[in-house]
Write a structure and sequence with these properties.
With 195 residues, the chain is an all-alpha fold. The chain folds into two domains: 115 residues, RNA polymerase sigma factor, region 2, helix turn helix motif (Rna Polymerase Sigma Factor, Chain: A); 70 residues, Winged helix-like DNA-binding domain superfamily/Winged helix DNA-binding domain (Arc Repressor Mutant, subunit A). It contains ten helices and no strands. Helix 1 packs across helix 3, helix 5 packs across helix 9 and helix 9 crosses helix 10. It is globular, with a radius of gyration of 20 Å. 26% of the residues are buried.
Length: 195
């Protein structure tokens, strides 16, 4: 009977954790709560893997970045939980993953040819592109949809994902000057479309 009671208690705790938002889960992880970490992983890892695969076709790099990201989350959850910054836990998690992806590209660049970018595989609209287009209505949405794909890609990396010029260059495998030029062209095109 004790085993059944414990099992019911564990299931109840898992259900309770699954109902918490990501910020609360990170706060529990900061206190060393393994079950909260598991709940955070179950909730965010599918989304994170999709975003990483969108930027990198090499499954080995994606797997390494996922592992490094969640290890960093386990170790540094207190930094997020204790900050007074108004960011979201999901945004914090993506920032960690994005930095780890750029680091992985840099490491690989020293040893081998960089992996094929996901954008080179197939020209299929990404879910986040569709979501962006769906959430940005009116003139801004129209202007975004009319941008050339290479300009939209730079705009997405720098504005939405918050990458620096250098990080965007590594991520997209472009010279920094090209990234700056495309960012400038994207801003001009958006201004003209919205004028």
């Amino acid at each position: 009977m004790r085993t059944i009671g414990r099992l019911a208690g564990v299931r109840s705790r898992v259900r309770a954790l699954d109902e918490l938002d990501e910020e609360r889960l990170v706060r529990l992880v900061a206190r060393g709560d393994r079950e909260a970490f598991d709940a955070l992983y179950r909730r965010t890892s599918p989304w994170l893997a999709v975003r990483l695969r969108r930027r990198c076709a090499d499954e080995q790099i994606v797997a390494e970045v996922m592992q490094e990201t969640y290890l960093a989350v386990w170790r540094a959850a207190g930094a997020f939980a204790g900050s007074a910054v108004g960011g979201t836990a999901v945004g914090w998690l993506w920032t960690i993953a994005a930095r780890r992806l750029v680091d992985a590209f840099r490491r690989r660049a020293h040893h081998a040819e960089p992996p094929v970018a996901a954008a080179e595989r197939a020209v299929v609209p990404a879910a986040e592109d569709e979501a962006l287009a769906g959430t940005v209505d009116g003139d801004v949405g129209d202007a975004l949809r009319r941008l050339a794909p290479e300009l939209r890609e730079v705009l997405q990396a720098m504005v939405l994902d918050g990458f620096s010029v250098r990080e965007t260059a590594v991520l997209l495998r472009l010279p920094e000057g090209t990234v700056k030029t495309r960012a400038r062209r994207a801003r001009i095109a958006m201004r003209e479309a919205l004028a």
